[in-house]
Structures are given as C-alpha cells and as structure tokens.
C-alpha cells in the first residue's frame, strides 16, 4: 500500500506529458496570497502562452456576489519546488471580465512605470530585504518563546547559532533552497535581532521582476510554514516593547548611479525622496507607525534623514558607495508588509520621472 508521501512525490513525467500549473494571485487585503491549480497538456516556459483563468472574487473581497468573476492574467513563471518536475508556479495579476485592472491590482500601475522609456534606459536594480516573524500556531506568539512569557533580551539572536538563539532554522533553510530551485534570485538569509524573526533577500532584480520574485518567495514561505504547522507574520511590529520590528529595506540603484559620478546622482535622488517623504510613507505598509519610532534601528516616521552607514536614518548609503563614488542606497522605511510592486515603482517614479 502506498504511503501518502509516496503519492505526493510521484514523478508525473514517467507516465504523462501533462503538468500542473499553480496560479497565484493577491487577495482583497493586499497581503493575502491565494492560489489554485490546473492541468496543462505539456511544459510551458512563456507566460504569454498560458491560458487566462478566473476565480470567485466575492470570496476574496474583490468583487460583489452578483458579478463575482475576476480574471487572472499570467505574468511570470517559476519552477514548482513542491511538485517538482516540469510543474510550475504562475504569478498572476487580476482584471475584470472587460479587461480593466481591479483596484487591488498594484502590478498593473507598476508595469506602466517600469515600461516608461526613461525608466527602461536607467535599468533600475532592486534588492529587497524581507523580514518576517514565525509564530506558534495556537497562541500566535513567536516561535520558541515561552507561552505568555519572554526570552532573554535582544543581543545574542542576530545571526545567532544554537537551539536557544536560532528558532526555526529548518523552515528558513527549506525556504532558501526552494527559492533557488524555483529560479528566484534569492541572495541570502539571516537570523534577525528579535528571536523568532528572520530575513531573506531577493535581488538584484530589474524593474517589475523584483515584485514578481518577492511575491512568489512570500508564497513559497507561506506554503513551507503551512507544512511546518507554523504561522507566518509580516506584521511590522509583532511584539510591542523593547523588541525590533520587521521591515523590508529596499536597496536601489540606476545605471547612472552605478556609473562614474553616480554618487552625485544618488544624492539628487535622495533629495527628491525627501521631498515626497509623506507620500512614500503612506504607501510603505500598514501599521508602519508602530515600527518607525526612531528606536530599534529606525528613523522616526515623521522625520526624513539620510546618512552614510547610519541604520537610524530613513535612507542609508553604504561606505563602499561613498568611497567608490558610485553604487546604490537603501530605503529603510518600507514595512515588512509592503507591496513590492508599489514600493519599487514609486521609488523609480520619484527618482527618475518626477520633477519637483
């Protein structure tokens, strides 16, 4: 008699050319990922060759019950680390039957910005540092923390090693390998300052692909925590008090910034970001005011400042960038629950297209 694990690990290519495509989209809250699967007659590598599909938007908070159909447009394909073989994950965005993007489709507007000739010419690179917290399922308290109590104060946990310091490493390493398998340009992982909190980095990625890759990396992580019976939280301040919050620091450069004389371009870009500080903060994630307090390696939410190697600044420039006179900078304001389509395109719009 076959075990359930045997059936889950069946290699379909032994008996059929058909594959399974898992269509992924973002639900009505702007953070809830949804997905469903369909059978295709053979391998597909071009999203334009995938069929459009639909779902019940009244069940995701994205359409009324009397006109509930929302259409999925395939936009990016990744290898499926769960089903393996030729099976794929498909990142989609969402439209009405008439072809209009629905209000929660943030990818559509981002793609318009990234297709502007001035933006295309600058080849914007992004590296996103996604922090997150692992929670015990039944009590919604960080993994490895005593229920109703607290571990020792912060200090030994950041990049820590040991059973009392690195809480959930099996989940984190599984996610790392699964993302590499999927074709996501995940560039690293580390334990964070608060125990039970971790970070992965996606990038460098160009333009709209940064948003696609981060959303699929989030999806893979949520699937892995589902298997591990652990809850994944992107709350920017999951535990009040003297504990670090969770952000999504966004590293950014353009072709001009990476070339000789780029440091002057960086300083002009930072000046423009400062002039639109309130607009960016409003789009950088819900509950961010609980995190951006001026403490725990943040700048106060109402203050814009930048500095070299300053982790208490809104924008941090690295020592290497200052020394070499070119490179990139880090926007430290985005919360862990930000939408990468919104944040990446807004940074490009402000620094490349906007004229104060």
From TrEMBL:
<feature type="domain" description="GS beta-grasp">
    <location>
        <begin position="19"/>
        <end position="99"/>
    </location>
</feature>
<dbReference type="GO" id="GO:0004356">
    <property type="term" value="F:glutamine synthetase activity"/>
</dbReference>
<keyword id="KW-0436">Ligase</keyword>
<dbReference type="InterPro" id="IPR036651">
    <property type="entry name" value="Gln_synt_N_sf"/>
</dbReference>
<feature type="domain" description="GS catalytic">
    <location>
        <begin position="106"/>
        <end position="356"/>
    </location>
</feature>
<keyword id="KW-0547">Nucleotide-binding</keyword>
<keyword id="KW-0067">ATP-binding</keyword>
<dbReference type="InterPro" id="IPR008146">
    <property type="entry name" value="Gln_synth_cat_dom"/>
</dbReference>
<dbReference type="Pfam" id="PF00120">
    <property type="entry name" value="Gln-synt_C"/>
</dbReference>
<dbReference type="Pfam" id="PF03951">
    <property type="entry name" value="Gln-synt_N"/>
</dbReference>
<dbReference type="InterPro" id="IPR014746">
    <property type="entry name" value="Gln_synth/guanido_kin_cat_dom"/>
</dbReference>
<dbReference type="InterPro" id="IPR008147">
    <property type="entry name" value="Gln_synt_N"/>
</dbReference>
<protein>
    <recommendedName>
        <fullName>Glutamine synthetase</fullName>
        <ecNumber>6.3.1.2</ecNumber>
    </recommendedName>
</protein>
<dbReference type="InterPro" id="IPR027302">
    <property type="entry name" value="Gln_synth_N_conserv_site"/>
</dbReference>
<dbReference type="InterPro" id="IPR027303">
    <property type="entry name" value="Gln_synth_gly_rich_site"/>
</dbReference>
<dbReference type="InterPro" id="IPR050292">
    <property type="entry name" value="Glutamine_Synthetase"/>
</dbReference>
<dbReference type="GO" id="GO:0043436">
    <property type="term" value="P:oxoacid metabolic process"/>
</dbReference>
<comment type="similarity">
    <text>Belongs to the glutamine synthetase family.</text>
</comment>
<dbReference type="GO" id="GO:0005524">
    <property type="term" value="F:ATP binding"/>
</dbReference>
């Amino acid at each position: 008699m076959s075990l359930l694990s045997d059936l889950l690990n069946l290699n379909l290519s032994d008996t059929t050319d058909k594959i399974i495509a898992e269509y992924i989209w973002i639900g009505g809250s702007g953070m809830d990922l949804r997905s469903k699967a369909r059978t295709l007659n053979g391998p597909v590598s071009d999203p334009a060759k995938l069929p459009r599909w639909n779902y019940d938007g009244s069940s995701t908070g994205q359409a009324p019950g009397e006109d509930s159909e929302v259409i999925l447009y395939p936009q990016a394909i990744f290898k499926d680390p769960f089903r393996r073989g030729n099976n794929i994950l498909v990142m989609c965005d969402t439209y009405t039957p008439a072809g209009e993007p629905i209000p929660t489709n943030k990818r559509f507007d981002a793609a318009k910005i990234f297709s502007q000739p001035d933006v295309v010419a600058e080849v914007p690179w992004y590296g996103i540092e996604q922090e997150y917290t692992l929670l015990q399922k039944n009590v919604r308290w960080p993994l490895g923390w005593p229920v109703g109590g607290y571990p020792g104060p912060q200090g030994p946990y950041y990049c820590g090693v040991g059973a009392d310091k690195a809480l959930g490493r099996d989940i984190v390493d599984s996610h790392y390998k699964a993302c590499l398998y999927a074709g996501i340009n995940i560039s690293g992982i580390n334990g964070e300052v608060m125990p039970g909190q971790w970070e992965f980095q996606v990038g460098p990625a160009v333009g709209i692909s940064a948003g696609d890759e981060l959303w699929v990396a989030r999806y893979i992580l949520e699937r892995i925590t589902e298997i591990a019976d652990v809850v994944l939280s992107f709350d920017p301040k999951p535990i009040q008090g003297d504990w670090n919050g969770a952000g999504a620091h966004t590293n950014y450069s353009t072709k001009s910034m990476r070339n000789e004389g780029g440091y002057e371009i960086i300083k002009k870009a930072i000046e423009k970001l400062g002039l639109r500080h309130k607009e960016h903060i409003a789009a950088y994630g819900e509950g961010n005011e609980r995190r951006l307090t001026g403490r725990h390696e943040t700048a106060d939410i109402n203050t814009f400042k930048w500095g070299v190697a300053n982790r208490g600044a809104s924008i941090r420039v690295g020592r290497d960038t200052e020394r070499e006179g070119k490179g990139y900078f880090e926007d430290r304001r985005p919360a862990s629950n930000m939408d990468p389509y919104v944040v990446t395109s807004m940074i490009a719009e402000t620094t490349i297209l906007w004229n104060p």
